Amino acid sequence: MDNGTPLADRIRPETLADFFGQENLVGENSYLKKAIESDSVRSMILWGPPGSGKTTLAKIIARATASDFVQLSAVSSGKKDLMKVIERARENQKIGKRTILFIDEIHRWNKAQQDALLPSVEDGTITLIGATTENPSFEVISDWVQELIAIFLSVIS
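RESULT FIELD:
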């Protein structure tokens, strides 16, 4: 047992089969389960309250699709961090590997930061999974709303 790893990370589900509380999203005939199984996951925004499983679901998607998973926090990252991820994603493309960029609290990124990422999502260099607690229709640029699938995670009770 690794005592240096936070408990939440040690008990975090690693597969869809272990991901409970959001059956409407990951159940047998759900869009998301079919997309993962066919390795055709599109960029998306996971919208839901804290603790609803947004980060966990993003990690499960990356693991299930054998993608390189990169996580940024919109609160503490900027354009320089983004440019490093884009370069990493371009290198991954050369070897046929997908890069999933998970941006926690994406609604906190300003318009310029969101605009800087958009071309890499549109051309397939990066598969974006953004997480937000805010309605994406109001908090992310309109180009994102048109480009990304919005998936609502409900409160886990």
